[in-house]
Every structure is written in structure tokens, then in C-alpha cells.
Amino acid sequence: MSTRWYPLYQRGNPQLRVFLPNFWMKLIRPSEPQPKNIVTFSVSMEMTKHDVKNYLEKIYKVPVMDVRTRIALGATKRDVTYGYVTKHDDMKIAYVTLPKEMEFTFPEMFTKKDDAKKADEKAMEDTKQGFKQFLERNKKRPGTPGWYSI
Amino acid sequence: MAGFTKLVNVSQSIKVCCAALGNLSIQSTTRNFGSLLRFQQHVQPQLCASASAITGRNFSTNQTKCDLMQFFDDPKNWPENEVKVGRAWKLDELRIKSNKELHQLWYVLLKERNMLLTMEHECNEKMELFPSPERLDKVKISMENLETVVRERNKAYHLLETGETGERPQRLVANNLGIRYMYKSVEHVLPPFMNVRWIKTRSIGYGGRAVRKFLLKYREKLYNEKRKAKNRSRNEVMMLLRRNPNMDVDFLRRKFPNVNIDKLMESDKIRGHYVPNV
């Protein structure tokens, strides 16, 4: 359960003892709609299905029924000017099935941020309007500072 | 890294460790370590409440919902543009921790990294700015430091008990072209003299005109790199002395140990154009 180097054999059991695993897992938004009890993860390329299951059960205490994995090919892109091809890294994607009573929906994280953005935009608009008014007022006396008159 | 396992054997027997691994409740230990980096995963009660009820098992939906929510940042931080956190763990702070504490801290850091990676991925998907990306670096530094400390202890233990470091053995070997490199030993099922397939595929001699020609050019390349670096630092010292005639020479000697400063001082090259040539 780790990318580190382990001896082929060591005395005692279990043979594979992992104390400081260095695998990572990202919970990602599924690209296609999935059943409610299936969660999509992007995981370290070296992880196996058993690793994913153990990782979630032991570290996150999430019961796992089934894991399916696939390797998603990274997107390739041809450079417009010179024609060489660049490629993004491949990703291992794990579909984890929770017990059927459970459900997980990916949270919407940026709804509040949209509100904040709108507020920011409104503030910007107000400032622009204020500056326009200032210019309008000072049209006939250019270069006068703001404190010169009300 | 095989030694990690052995280190833990020192303090506790394997059985105890395995039991600890199984029972390790990270949430309860989180609070001890959350003082520096913000590691606590506050799970919002309303999120738990929104999960549907479940019957007839010894786990609950609420629990799962909360557990998978560990992959996400605190909802309070979702709309933020900046998340204030502390610094990474330093080596000296980790050195005074016990093995058990380090072990727990590792899992806290691991979870934090997963959370940050998840948030980063989602932000990229949604074309949003990931707030405070330096958190990832801090976690990375902490994890590196923690590994360093564990390794130190491992080495110390092995040196004391066996007289060897217990690190993965390395030795200098020549590759097919005769260039030497550090080979990290790997355990094999068969000893070398029995491994006929390996013996057959191994090419021992690395002579030949083409190889010699290649090696000559390769070494020339290495030499040129070295020579250019040397000239660069010499010229740098020269320009420094030319512009600042009263510069601290000892400091220069310390900073550029490869440059012969005495020879430079004798030469005319460090004289500025504004100083008359006497």
C-alpha cells in the first residue's frame, strides 16, 4: 500500500507491513452520472483495487463494497504553431461502491462564491458610476482635486 | 525504506502495532496535532443531518457522509479567497515526538494532502482559484521532514544494534557503456550464479570503437560543463572585485571556494577602468 521499496521476505507475518503509506486519493466529480452509492476517486497510479479498499476502510473508516478502476488517458494536444504534441498525465480512476443504503452526492462548493462575485461586481459598478459622476462634475474644471468642492 | 517497519518494531511489538493500525482513530488524535497546521476536519452537523437515515447495520449513513466529507475542506472555507494556516512542521519539532505520535501525525498529514488535492482538482474543474495553494507545499515539507526523522531513528537503531545503517544497500557498478552509477540493490529469488537467463542477457564487455568515441565525447561534455562553471564563477568574482575594490576577500573566498582569488588579485583584470594603471 505504498510506493516504497519492501524486502521480498521478512520474518513474521503479515509479510507486507505498511506504516507510513504515501499514496494519495482525490475525490473527484464523476464525469458521467453515477448511482448514488458510487463515489469516483482519482488515485495514485500504483494503487490497486485492494489498496483503494484498504485505504478507505482503514484510514477513512468508510465501508467499501466494491472497487473498479480504470486508467484514463491524458488528453493530447497539438501545438498550433509548431505542430508538436503535448500530453497530460494519465490518471487512474477508481469507482468505489458503498453499501447500497448509503449515498454520496458531490457538494456544490462555489455557489456562495458566485454570490460573493456578484457583490464584488456590484461594488465595482458602483465605483465606476461614482468616478463617472466625478468626471461629469469636473468636466468644466479639469485637474481639480476631489476635495475642492462638494 | 524497509527500515520503517523495523523501527516500529523497536518500540512496540508487531502485534501491538497492527492492532493500533486497526484501531487508530484519527479524529480523536487530530486535535493534538492541529495546533500548527489547520488539520482539524470540522464536519458540519447540517451536512450529516442531510444524509438519509439507514437501518439495520452497525454503521450509519451519517458516519459515511461525514467520513467522505473529510476529503473536502471546511465548508466555511469554500467561498474564501485565502485560507490562513500556520507553517510546516520543522525537523526539531518532530525529533522530540514519540514514534507513535509521528505515526499518527503521518495520517493526519496524509488526509490533509488528500483534502487539498481534492479541493485543487475541483477548483481547476470549475475554473476557480484554489485558495492558498502554499498549503500543499507546507504539507509536503512536513511529510518530508517526518520521513527524515523516522529515517534518522531507524539508522541510529540499526547502527547501535548491528553496526550498519540499515539503509537500502547501494554500490557503484558500470552499465553497458562503462559509465559507473550507484546501483540500488534489489532482492532476487535466485542467486546470481543460478540465474542463467540474467547471465545470458548481461553484456560484460563494453569496448568497441563506437563506445570509446562516445565516451570521449561524453567526458568532453562533462568537462566543458565543469570548465564553464569554473570560468563563470571566476568572472563573477572578477567583476565583483572590479566594481567593489574594498570588498571583503574572506567572504568571497568562502562563497567561491573554487576560485583562486590570490591569483586574480595579482592580475590586472580586477582593476576598474577608472583606476589609473600605475
From TrEMBL, chain A:
Pfam families found in the cross-reference section: Ribosomal_L23 (PF00276)
Subcellular location: Mitochondrion
Domain of life: Eukaryota
Protein name: Large ribosomal subunit protein uL23m
GO biological-process terms attached to the record: mitochondrial translation
Record-linked Gene3D superfamilies: 3.30.70.330
One MF annotation (Gene Ontology) recorded for this entry: structural constituent of ribosome
SUPFAM superfamilies per the UniProt record, alphabetical: Ribosomal proteins S24e, L23 and L15e (SSF54189)
Assembly and interaction partners: Component of the mitochondrial ribosome large subunit (39S) which comprises a 16S rRNA and about 50 distinct proteins.
InterPro entries: Nucleotide-bd_a/b_plait_sf, Ribosomal_uL23-like, Ribosomal_uL23/eL15/eS24_sf
TrEMBL record, chain B:
Gene Ontology MF, one: structural constituent of ribosome
Subcellular location: Mitochondrion
A single Gene Ontology CC term: mitochondrial large ribosomal subunit
Protein's gene: 101895487
UniProt GO BP: mitochondrial translation
Keywords per UniProt: Mitochondrion, Ribonucleoprotein, Ribosomal protein
Record-stated family: Belongs to the universal ribosomal protein uL29 family.
Top-level taxon in the UniProt lineage: Eukaryota
Record's keyword annotation contains Nuclease: no
Nucleotide-binding found in the keyword field: no
Protein name per the record: Large ribosomal subunit protein uL29m
Major subcellular location class: mitochondrion
Pfam family, one: MRP-L47
